[in-house]
Amino acid sequence: MDFTTIQIGIEKNVARIALNRPEVRNAMNAQMIKELTEAVKWLDSRDDIVVIEICGNGKCFCAGADLNYMKEMANAGYEENAADARRLANLFKTVYFCNKAVISLVHGACVGGGNGITAASDIVLAEKETKFAFPEVKIGLTPATISPFVIAKCGETAARDLMLSGRRFSAQEAFDFKLVNFVGTMDEINERLCFYIKEFLEVKPMALRNCKMLLRTVAHRDDPNDPVFEKTAQAIAIQRTMMSNER
Prior knowledge:
- By secondary structure, the chain is of the alpha/beta class.
- The protein has 9 helices and 9 strands.
- The protein has helices at 30-44, 67-74, 78-96, 114-120, 147-165, 171-176, 186-201, 205-218, 227-246, and strands at 6-11, 14-19, 51-56, 101-106, 109-111, 123-127, 131-133, 168-170, 182-184.
- The strands form 2 sheets. Strands 1-2-3-4-6-9 form a 6-stranded mixed sheet, sandwiched between helices.
- The relative contact order is 0.14.
């Protein structure tokens, strides 16, 4: 498969997806959202893949939404915004409902939608200098499409602190809030990555799939058609359209 905004490398049973728009700090646009969704689905369909890594090339993991992309959507109508929000929600759902072990490696910055990718992942390893933020409220929006995944990972109390304030927070705070599983230097997180890969490669693929289904069922987030995903997509579409009308 050919991609322009991401890179894929496969070694035996492990696939690595690298966000590859370093010139804009791997900010997500429509093309990256499409390619990431396609890549995860493709790797999920392969019997030889057990682990999927997601990382970012350049200085940071992901700076959130691309500004030009946001300007385009601000000038679009409700229906176009709703369709776009559904595509973004579908990306996070694709990661969350993936049957492989998904590990995100975060460095530099993880902002806005980047937190949707990590929250939907099974394991998150963060370089200790990484800065996190949910800045949507500071530009007149809400972190709607990522909220089901973030709240499932860190809970409502942490989400209220971070989403309502839109403040920056450190990798250590992200660990304390349960948004990440491990914090360390790049050497340490790469060592931890090798540890997890070794452990996951010893797991029976069907058991891994069934255990992920079990965890989603117990957490009451086992239905990809849950109305919450559509409601959050509609919420961000309405907000974008209102912003456009106010201009």
